[in-house]
Amino acid sequence: MEINLKIITVLISFFISSLAAASSLKLSGNEINYIHQNNLLKVCVSNNNKPFESTENGKHVGITADFAFLIAQQTGFNIQLATAKEFVQQTSPNSFQQCDLSSIANFDRVLKNNPLATVPYLESPLVFTTTQDKLFINSINELFGKSIAIVNKFDYAQPLILRYPKITWIEVDEIHSGIEKVAQREIYGYIGPLASTGQFLQNNYYHNLKINGEYRDNIALAFKVKNNQPVLKQIINKAINNIDKEQKQAINHAWIKVNYEHHANYELILIIILVGSAFFFGLLYRHITLRRHANELKKISQTDKLTNLFNRVKTDEALIYHLNSFRRYGDIFSIILLDIDDFKIINDQYGHMVGDKALIDVANVLSANCRNTDIIGRWGGEEFLIICPHTSWQKTIQMTEKLRENIEQIKLENPTSKLPDHQITASFGVTEAQIEDTHNSLIVRADQALLEAKRKGKNRYVSVRSGLNSELITD
Ligand SMILES: Nc1nc2c(ncn2[C@@H]2O[C@H](COP(=O)(O)OP(=O)(O)OP(=O)(O)O)[C@@H](O)[C@H]2O)c(=O)[nH]1
């Protein structure tokens, strides 16, 4: 009922303009004769290609039918619509002889090369349909490698399939199976004319699908004229050319009601980029802050608060690392264990504050006179351990003497002025890592050397190159 009303409205609206149009066709005598002699014009259309052409309540309806009636109005032909299109395409060329006109939909360039095709009466964009989550398709090239369904019985299908071999084409018999595959996520998308695709999606409530871009070339709808009927083609061309823009739009609006995205939703993209950026920078800031805190914590856990040198734990770790490296790669190293002389006296006579200052001064001398690669740690109360990687025995001895001399230069000022200024000195035990050494044997050897230095009168070093119980050699 609704369809009938639609047709009646469209036809009545054209009736008056058509009367005027008939005279404005400027048909030749030959053409007028043709119409008189072949007044019954059989037009073959598909019965299942909405909204272009289909059957409703036993009647032919759709865009093609409306245009056929318009042509009849203008030319005086008596149109007989027949649903023979599929039959015509699938059987012998002779079958086509049954139809004076049949509908055809293809790219403009293809139609121009077809001597039987009339001028197009309508154009429709060819659009891509995907699930809602897919990004807007700017170009068909973005579909290379993807599975795309196409209805193979339509005229435009083969030219498109041949032109884009990089697309995995899924040929289907009708729109329903193509769209259903997309909805079920079996394939990436479907390509088809906007008019039929849009209407199908709306009528079948595919809420998870959207029309998501269009192919650069439109589909042109035209008629194919029966063989050897050039006069008929001329008449139909004149009639089609005589249909004005408003009439075409009226038919379009009567049958096609589709809204879709013609371009990427830039606002949405901008919002996504902004939200994404905020989220990213938030995470980055959090990562940097956490990392800084982690680094600070690590530093605190490895540093002696008073002297700012490595603490015992870190120094021990470094010692184990260098011992392993020596065993595996032969990276030689020496250690220097030093202890401030008579530190108890300093504390007792000058107070702990001055004692602390003495520790800081010694630590500064050590830092100033060692290499960057040396590890300097506070080993105990007034004891320090220096690890000297890749340092020859001779260089280690030279360095120890230099440290001793520089510590000797430190003067503890007497804050009460009652006592003389105190000269700080330190004693040193020096040794070199040997292949048979353990962490313990190395430290014990350095400690023995240090004790020997103390025994021998302090402010000196004793070096023991190797061997736990070897004879101590005093330099
Ligand atoms: N001010 C201060 N004193 C400390 C610190 N750590 C350890 N001491 C003190 O250093 C002193 C070490 O004394 P001893 O072990 O007898 O050694 P010493 O007096 O240096 O004698 P020798 O080693 O034989 O020269 C003790 O009085 C400790 O309390 C510290 O961080 N600050």
UniProtKB/TrEMBL annotation:
It catalyses: 2 GTP = 3',3'-c-di-GMP + 2 diphosphate. NCBIfam families: GGDEF (TIGR00254). Keywords: Membrane, Transmembrane, Transmembrane helix. The keyword Transferase does not apply. The chain crosses the membrane at residues 266-285. InterPro entries: Diguanylate_Cyclase (IPR050469), GGDEF_dom (IPR000160), Nucleotide_cyclase (IPR029787), Rev_trsase/Diguanyl_cyclase (IPR043128), Solute-binding_3/MltF_N (IPR001638). Residues 331-466 form the GGDEF domain. It is an enzyme of class 2 (transferase). The keyword Transmembrane helix applies. Gene3D superfamilies: 3.30.70.270, Periplasmic binding protein-like II. It comes from the Bacteria. This is diguanylate cyclase. Its EC number is 2.7.7.65.
